[in-house]
Amino acid sequence: MDSIPTYHVLALSGGGYRGLYTATILTELEKAFGQPIAKHFDLICGTSVGGILALGLANEIPASNLKLMFEDEGKTIFQSRNLIRKVFGYWGCAKHDNSGLKTVLKKYFNDTTLGELKHRVFVPSVNYTTGRGQFFKTPHHKSFEMDHRMSLVDVALATAAAPVYFPLFKHSRGVFADGGLVGNSPGFFGLHEIRQFLAPDQKVRVRVLSIGTMTIGATVGGDVSLDRGFGKWRGDLFDLVISAQESSVDYMLRHELKDDYFRIDDQATPDQSEDVKDLDRVSNAATNTLKTRGMHAAQKALGDAKFAPFRAHLASPAIFFHGPRKNFKE
Fold first, then answer.
1. What is the mean pLDDT of the chain?
2. With b meaning 16 or more CB within 10 Å and e meaning fewer, what string describes 135-159?
3. Between the N and C ends of the chain, which has fewer C-beta atoms within 10 Å?
4. Catalytic residues, which ones?
5. Among candidate residues 185, 179, 144, 193, the one with its CA nearest the CA of residue 42
6. pLDDT band at 1 (very low <50, low <70, confident <90, very high)
7. Strand 261-264 and strand 205-211: pairing?
8. How far apart are CA 208 and CA 200, in angstroms?
9. Cβ contact 279:236 at 8 Å
10. Is the CB of residue 11 less than 8 Å from the CB of residue 260?
11. What is the distance between the alpha carbons of residues 96 and 164, in angstroms, rounded to a whole number?
């Protein structure tokens, strides 16, 4: 047993429809755990589609239901715009509007707010009004006084407003862009959150379980044009940002935490890359690839001795300082 306090962080990456891979893994892990997966983690971090999953898990929505959200509602989330806007979308407007996404989020989250969640969450976004990262959190520290009033739907729309793919999200607190611009793989943010806010100035052990979205790795071909305007970059620019971030965070966490860091992710094979390359590709081929690879990844993780501590750990009840679940006593 650990002789010092131990905190476990679940970190879920962004990746559009490839979140079905993540949701498949979470479903299999939850089956193996025999209870809501949120009960095994002291903090759940998620960016973009990973943020949507994090909010769902923290609300104790079964992971299997979140998996069905992709299978049943994928085409609604990434619904096509009218022909003219679709043709010229990369130039004048986002490829998709967010009305379909909002409809699906309302169906799963209703009017639930961050302050009503039973488990701690951390969801990155970018506040385009201030030009800085915005990190939405449950009120697990006395200084977190505002976020608890935000609805899960609004937080999800803020973290998933992927440039080119979806419009920016406007809220009374600012105009928001996708959290992938600041932290697509949020494990390092989770580590900082524990050390800075949950256990400041304490000697603690932190383990991070990071789940990706079948890393593609944005690369350039040997004969591609090097003089690229936005018309040539299009969605590849955002893909490159999140790909570079993921590899950097993975590298640093492996150095920082060593065996206390465990990542579940797969690289698509050359044939499968075509199925899942685009963040908004909803097809039978993409669905089958993401589900099959997710099942295999979960099975592999469950059989790995280094994964065992994540299965054994049970999080202590969260302390909240504000909102409807306030339980902090002076």
1. 89
2. bbbbbbbeebeebbebbbbbbbbbb
3. C
4. 48, 178
5. 193
6. very low
7. parallel
8. 18
9. no
10. no
11. 8
CA 241 to CA 237: how far, in whole Å? 6
Q: What's the rounded Cα separation, in Å, for the pair 287 and 71?
A: 7
pLDDT tens digits for 32-54? 999 999 999 999 999 999 999 99
Q: How far apart are CA 257 and CA 248, in angstroms?
A: 14
* Token representation of residue 150: 């935000």
| Full 3-state SS string of the chain | CCCCCEEEEEEECCCHHHHHHHHHHHHHHHHHHCCCHHHHCCEEEECCHHHHHHHHHHCCCCHHHHHHHHHHHHHHHCCCCCHHHHHCHHHHCCCCCCHHHHHHHHHHHCCCEHHHCCCCEEEEEEECCCCEEEEEECCCCCCCCCHHHCEHHHHHHHHCCCCCCCCCEEECCEEEECCHHHHCCCHHHHHHHHHHHHCCCCCCEEEEEEECCCCCCCCCCCCCCCCCCHHHHCCHHHHHHHHHHHHHHHHHHHHHHHHHEEEECCCCCHHHHHHHCCCCCCCHHHHHHHHHHHHHHHHHHHCCHHHHHHHHCCCCCCCCCCCCCCCCCC
Q: pLDDT tens-digit profile of 135-167?
A: 999 999 999 999 999 999 999 999 999 988 899
